[in-house]
Structures are given as structure tokens and as C-alpha cells.
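Task card 7
Instruction: Convert sequence to C-alpha cells.
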Amino acid sequence: MLLVLKPNSDELGREAARVVANAVRRNPTLRLGLATGNTMLRMYRELVRLHREERLDFSRVVTFNLDEYLGLPANHPQSFHHFMRQNFFAQVNVAPRNIHMPDGSVKGDYQQYCASYEETIRKAGGIDLQILGIGRNGHVGFNEPTSSLGSRTRLKVLSKETIEDNRKFFAANEEIPQCAITMGIGTILEAKRILLLASGPSKATAVANAIEGPLTASVTASALQLHGEVTFIVDREAGAQLKQQEYYQRVLEMTNILTPERL
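Output:
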């Protein structure tokens, strides 16, 4: 596990975009797992800039998004389909046939639908690089506390904390989604590489618990400790509660000396 500390969220976004861009340049057919949220916006803006100004080519990249709210159609302004289209897909040259996102409007046999999403990932060859955010309670995707660390893509009931965090995005009289379709922890851990981004003081406890705390289903991000190729990129506020910052910095410096293209 590597930790990269950045002074602010803008630098965090640029560093994350650099990692993704390097991965795309090395492998133009990269299978890329994507996430949504405010922390991701800066990364997507920089990737769009690199596409426009430096001809970063996404035409053969295959994408898989982590999750989507159940009950929201793709054109709903708070759906993750809308977020991705507005902030990334409509501004770069990812082929529409290569974009995969959970369908929040699906009805009926949710188990079968989720199994088919897993099968699509498997048939594509698995995910090469998975991008993650982290919730205040330490969840990744919508794998709320107590989720099985071996879980697969499934329908998940959202915690009260997550619903309250989401309230600000919806109108006062609008119903807030209670469930989401999400990749499971087991699905996430099968990615070859994982990149987790965290910004702001509200994520500091979750980041510290994920990196330095015990492996526990109460903090599903702690499952990343089981993966051999994980990089956390966090700003100073999100990393404020980490106790071993100097150690992580020395590890990063040594890693970059030995293998400068690792990131």
C-alpha cells in the first residue's frame, strides 16, 4: 500500500489524473473502474484537459462504474449516469459501447441483473485500475458498514448516515434513494490496481481507519489492506489523523526511486 499526500484537493486531482493517464498510455485498452463524487471532479477535469490539450486517447478504454442509485433514471440530475456524462464521457472520446454502468431503473430480478454486471466485467478480462472514493463511515462504493468483505455486485440498503450525507443533493420535497446497486468488496479486490482518493477533514477518520485501523467489516475500506497494489491519494486535511505520515513518505520516495513508473 502506498500513500501520497497532497497539499490540497486540486493537487490531489491532478495527481490522480496523472496516474490514470499514465495507465491509459501504457495500455490503450485499459479496463478502468470509475467512481463519482465531488472528490472525483478534479480528476475528471484534468483528464478532460489532457484529452483536449495532449491528445490523451480514451477510444479503446473500457469503463465500469462502481454504483448507481436504485430508482433514478439515467437522465435524473442526481444519477451517477448524469454525473459521468456531464463531467467526463461527453467531453472525451470513450466509445459508448465501452461504457458500463449499473442501471438504476432496473426492475424485477435484481440478483440476476447484478450477476450479469459481474459477468460483463469478467468477460472483459477484469478491471485493470479501479478508482475509489471513501465515505465518512469508511465505505467504498455503497458497501456500507457490516458488508461482507467477499461481497459481489448487489442491491444494498443505504445507511442513515449515507442518506443524510446525500440529502444536500436533493430538493427539500424530493425523495432520497434508500438503496443502490454497487460492486461488492470482493469485486473491487479483484481489480489489478486500486486508487483511492480522499479530500477534506470529514474523511480524516475514515482514511485513518482504512489505512491504520484493523481489518473489519465495520470499515469496508479497510479490506484494501488485503490488496497488494493499492495507492491512497489524500490531501492534508483527509490525512490529518494518520499517525505514520513520515513513514509513508519514505516508502513512496523509495518506491519512486526504484520504480519511477509505478504511479
